[in-house]
Specification:
By secondary structure, the chain is an alpha+beta fold. The chain contains eight helices and nine strands.
Length: 206
């Protein structure tokens, strides 16, 4: 690990230890969903990505912040000597036991990295085990949480991704995310806490 990433990772982990994040509740009023009093769907039935109180991250949602804060956005960066085409490339790649196929997934970005998971032939949900370059990692372990922290600290070495987080003033939410760890390699809570923690961590640079 490069020294600058190692140092920033250590600082981030210390910051995260005392960082409290509460998942906001989605309320239904008259058949419509609201969060913090703001509707999640507009009058035309489209999911709202940006409003005054929050940014609801989603690659296909309306609003530039919603799109560029998505794990699917093609921010290229290096992670453990591998070039990743997006953050999502990692989360889909770890579902492959085969190293060669995993490395191919790392080169995919946007929705392609998400769709290609059907090529795996391995269902991590049955065992709770994901893979990094052939090494087994328990999805429910501290080791997994640590590698995710390292992933995001590596990702913010991309100046565009770093700057969008640093300049973001609103709460970041992700209402489409699954809630339980056995359903996904990154839950709604994990995603929201990670990005909000990162943006607050980066405020020290302002």
């Amino acid at each position: 690990m490069e020294k600058n990433i190692e140092k920033e990772l250590e600082e981030f982990k210390k910051f995260k230890e005392t960082y409290n994040y509460t998942l906001k509740e989605i309320r239904e009023i008259d058949g419509k969903e609201y969060l913090d009093g703001e509707p999640l769907i507009d009058e035309e039935g489209n999911e709202i990505g940006d409003c005054e109180k929050w940014i609801n991250v989603g690659y296909k949602r309306k609003g530039p912040y919603a799109k560029v804060l998505s794990n699917l956005f093609p921010y290229e960066f290096e992670f453990r000597d591998k070039k990743l085409s997006s953050i999502e490339s990692f989360f889909q790649g770890i579902k492959f036991k085969n190293i060669e196929m995993q490395n191919l997934v790392f080169s995919y970005h946007s929705l392609n990295s998400n769709y290609v998971k059907v090529c795996s032939g391995y269902d991590w949900k049955q065992t709770g085990i994901v893979y990094w370059q052939g090494k087994e990692i328990d999805r429910y372990s501290k080791e997994y949480d640590d590698i995710v922290d390292e992933l995001y600290i590596s990702a913010i070495q991309n100046p565009l991704y770093r700057n969008i987080l640093k300049t973001c003033e609103r709460n970041i939410i992700h209402t489409m995310g699954a809630k339980e760890k056995n359903e996904t390699v990154f839950t709604r809570y994990e995603f929201e806490k990670q990005l909000n923690c990162l943006k607050d961590f980066l405020k020290k640079e302002e």
